[in-house]
């Protein structure tokens, strides 16, 4: 799809921004965007209870599927740039719909979003471009899967092809477990998302997140990050959306980054171009650093959550300019937006029971929070009838702090977390263990 950016409404005006999404990620984007003095108003659709606390920001409510009403509203608010946060509206094509109405949009169309919305498409894309990734087999029936599972010397990783809110991946310990996970997906555990299954060779190594802001042709890298996907300390327990992160990660040396750029980032962008996909948004590379080098575990077509909350405080006020340049296809590729003297860390507080069932509506108490170099980004919160903050999601809020070393960063983060409470509140005490030197117990007890 080619986009004529000269048709866009804003003609480089940058006053009113719309952010679509309701998580901590979107609140942190608003927080970074408001830093620029050009910005007058940021609207979050729908946002959460924390959104209104962010400078220049307010929530709006609208049905995203009612395009006529949406366009009318965006015109009445004189929106100059739309930032689409979550994968679902991107996969459903909101990017191209808004671009067809001449809005400048940060976020790929449904064609580019396929990198996330179809794992088999992404794997075939990587295979064609010779991008390092785990070996895979795309299967459409249990019979087909059985042949591959029993021929393989190792138990294979099982993935539902489509979007499954981060729950569609199984890492089995035996062939029997591989088979039963495949069977469950084909029986409809994830609806249409499981019509195709991807079986994958299991690979090993630390995982890192790399983000490239793209304008279709050029890109700028954000600071790297490391997420903590498992629920419990020592990286045990079920996978979650992410329990905390830190940025940048020293796990990625300069030479790793050079290799990742040459073997992964550039070939990805070149291949998108070759497919005529005008990718204007963030490309999230979920990488594993294996013994034989970095490999792509997954692509996402959006910012990571909680990586975004972690990275946004490291951005200077020109971050929003960069988003606009991506949306309009005007990136130079050499822009600097990072405040390089700071490190950042984030810990997520969750509801009891997450990532399975959890209760909502529990009052949140905020004590004496030190907000110097520290932000609280709400993820799942709302207001009760008395206007008090209550829990409204599995991941409730993120506490993010910055400092000159990671001990200092996490000391502040955990100190502030102790000031926050709600019934059943849970958080991992060891976020950043990879980069913290000081005895963890002395900080967290
Ligand atoms: P994904 O949703 O594809 O990122 O997968 C979720 C998590 O499953 C990843 O963060 C990895 O920890 C793990 N995973 C996915 N694919 C593989 C693989 N081929 N080998 C080992 N672990 C994997
Ligand atoms: N933090 C992982 C994700 O956003 O998918």
Overall pLDDT score: 94
Beta percentage is 15-25%
- Please, how many helices? 13
Approximate helicity band: 25-40%
CATH fold category name of the largest domain: D-amino Acid Aminotransferase, Chain A, domain 1
CATH architecture of the largest domain: 2-Layer Sandwich
User: What is the CATH level 1 assignment of the largest domain?
Assistant: Alpha Beta
> So what's the overall shape?
globular
Structural class call reads alpha+beta
**Gyration radius from CA atoms, angstroms:** 21 Å
Q: Give me the oligomer status.
A: single chain
- Would you report the number of β strands? 24
Query: CATH superfamily of the largest domain, called what?
Result: ATP-grasp fold, B domain
Unreliable residue runs: 1-6
Span between termini? 55 Å
How would a crystallographer describe the biggest sheet?
Answer: 5 strands, parallel
Strand order of the largest sheet: 3-2-1-4-5
Number of domains: 4
Instruction: Enumerate the distinct ligands.
Output: adenosine monophosphate, glycine
Report on the architecture of this protein.
This protein is α+β, with helices and mostly antiparallel strands. The chain has 13 helices and 24 strands. The strands form 7 sheets. It has a 5-stranded parallel beta sheet, with helices on both faces. Helix 7 (142-151) packs antiparallel against helix 8. The longest helix is centred in the middle third of the chain and has 21 residues, at 254-274. It is globular, with a radius of gyration of 21 Å. The model is unreliable at 1-6 (pLDDT under 50). Bound molecules: adenosine monophosphate (AMP) and glycine (GLY). Residues 134, 157, 166, 169, 171, 200, 202-203, 207, 229, 239, 286, 297-298 line the site of adenosine monophosphate (AMP).
